[in-house]
Amino acid sequence: MTEFFRDIPKVTYQGASSPNEFAFRHYNPDEVVMGKRMEDHLRFAVAYWHSFAWPGGDPFGGQTFDRPWFGDTMDLARLKADVAFEMFDILGAPFFCFHDADARPEGANFAESQRNLEEITDYFAAKMEGSKTRLLWGTANMFSHRRWMSGASTNPDPEVFAYAAATVKGCMDATHRLGGANYVLWGGREGYETLLNTDLGQEADHMGRFLSMVVDYKHKIGFDGAILIEPKPQEPSKHQYDYDVATVYGFLCRYGLEKEVKVNIEQGHAILAGHSFEHEIALATSLGIFGSIDMNRNDYQSGWDTDQFPNNHAEKALAFYEILRAGGYTTGGTNFDAKIRRQSLDPEDLILAHVGGMDTCARALKAAAACLEDGGLEAARKERYAGWETPQAQAMLQSDLAAISADVLARDVNPEPRSGRQERLENLWNRFV
User: Which is the catalytic residue, given 100, 102, 173, 244?
Assistant: First the structure.
């Protein structure tokens, strides 16, 4: 055992009236919701990067956290893993997620970085033998180092493209070795700053070819998990190619990958794209590309991605309603891509942030499930579109404009608008949250 979380007890479910800070009030892993254990519905994951690699900086100030594992040696990387798995155990977290650069120090060259990754992968595997925590997904950090300043797969330098391909292969191998349920690609620098030096068509073709190589390699090594893209409109690039779910779907269709790749949707990224979280989830499920989510929130008074822990169950219930309505997760889960505030210095802050986030999501899940089981919203939705169930309406979809026009003239069609009943349905929703 390390000393970092000394005297912090394992967090257990104690109910809504518990005065204990280190207790779940709403997240009961064994509670059955819609025929499934809550733990199996939510599939919580801890993000390695924000919890153990982030130093507490922001655009205007540097490190505020003083962690005993900060440094660039393999001994410190192993200490970081020891502390991480202790936290997973305290929380009873079923999953974690990591980038390569979160877990291993950067080497003097690619070969050394790869050896470091392989060594820490073996260390993770040994830690997992004594833990319930599994790997939800792995990924490669291809945005922080200066080599990625002009992109990875979209970089104008073919040597950077090659380095990116080698990096992703190594990370996919690590994810496969650890039994990961998914592999994620976030194109933080896959975009552009100015069109004055950018060839959009060439960069899109290179990104499409790169993703095809990822899919081919998945099948070559027998990786059973899903390949996921995480949409984001901008930041750090001025304009990123994976702007939102609709943009990603169009990209996948353009390169024939819509049956091979799904999306990992983040709350904060959805907001930056001008959407709601639930919109992005509903669109992804309707297109058949929903995979997983990154759970967090933005500060709505700030114009950037603040990655705060969720604390509004009513807001999150809308997202979980869409997930439940689509049948729930398959390989995906609820990853806390969230970080404590840079003034929250204590080990307890890191634990309690996750406790609050897990409780918020549990309340949201139960509210969404109760509303879905009630059936009122779905009945109203079905009633609104009931006219399309008639044989005449279905036949019209197989017709043409001239025939439809003739029918409108013959029947003297003059439809009257019908209420969408939004406020009534909002009142119905509010009964459950």
Answer: 102
